[in-house]
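hiii, so i know i said id send this last week but things got crazy w the move. better late than never?? heres the sequnce for the chain we talked about at the cafe, plus the structure i predicted for it. fair warning i was half asleep when i ran it
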Amino acid sequence: MVTQRRFAVIAVCLVLIFGACGMNGPSTYRLATTAASPGDGYLGGLQGVLGGQVNGDGSACLWVQAAAPDKTDLIWPAGYTASDKPLRVVDASGKTLAAVGQTVALQGGRSVGQSAEGCHDASQTWVVAKVMSAK
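okay and structure toks below
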């Protein structure tokens, strides 16, 4: 009887331990990036609602939608990634810059001939130099 009770307690502890290991925190995803450093280059502006999706290959696509149905896929500075819970863009130091659903103002410029990794159906592509605001 004592052995069965001990076995049951050990089994419950193992389930709790391994169950806790399965509770993952935020995941990180690759974003389309450029070799430029943050703040370098273009001085244009883009404003709209940040949208995004996670892809099965470990990448994520982030875009700005200013007016339906047009959306602009985003290419980020080197070292930027996406993280989830909620889906957001994170700089190289780990700071969250903007989350999906926020209205963002971006400094940057239209990309010519460069597509954004993980994105497939935008009318244009934008190279982000800097996130000016996210609300």
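btw The CA atoms of residues 24 and 85 lie 11 Å apart. thought thatd interest u
miss u guys!!
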